[in-house]
Recover the amino acids of this structure.
């Protein structure tokens, strides 16, 4: 196979897989990898948005990917940030904007609400209507938060591998 256009899914250290449309967005310690699912039997590598070695969950909406980078522990990196990546050209993703975070873990998106789990620093809800200036609309500081799954104004919140909690929200 031609390594310039095709990579097996085993070639990347997977952190999170986010299917969106006819593509897979894979957050890995070295970057966000984008694969086409046109042929579902053999996904085709399209591109990689590279970053410093760090833990890297990803969600996608429209022409933008939201990538949290977390330093420390198994993640090796030192940056704690949210990168918003323009993926309108899937073969050439570009950094759109970076926001500082405290200790980002998982994230989820539902319409104009972006949720970021900040570990022991809580769960944050952002209004992402204007990506140039996202707004923190709610901060659940009393929660330890590792991951979130938003769905139709409900949120599954994971604070430990075995502890889940439902939260309702409004947009």
């Amino acid at each position: 196979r031609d390594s310039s256009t095709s990579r097996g899914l085993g070639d990347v250290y997977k952190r999170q897989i986010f299917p969106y449309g006819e593509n897979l967005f894979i957050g890995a310690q070295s970057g966000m990898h984008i694969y086409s699912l046109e042929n579902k039997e053999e996904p085709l590598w399209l591109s990689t948005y590279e970053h410093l070695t760090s833990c890297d969950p990803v969600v996608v909406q429209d022409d933008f990917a939201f990538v949290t980078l977390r330093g420390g522990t198994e993640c090796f990196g030192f940056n704690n940030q949210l990168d918003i990546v323009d993926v309108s050209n899937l073969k050439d993703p570009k950094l759109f904007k970076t926001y500082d975070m405290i200790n980002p873990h998982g994230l989820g998106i539902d319409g104009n609400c972006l949720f970021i789990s900040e570990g022991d620093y809580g769960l944050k809800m952002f209004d992402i209507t204007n990506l140039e200036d996202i707004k923190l609309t709610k901060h659940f500081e009393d929660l330890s938060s590792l991951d979130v799954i938003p769905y139709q104004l409900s949120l599954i919140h994971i604070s430990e591998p075995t502890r889940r909690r439902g939260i309702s929200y409004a947009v």
Summary: The two ends are 46 Å apart (CA to CA). The CA atoms of residues 110 and 152 lie 8 Å apart. The longest strand covers residues 14-20.
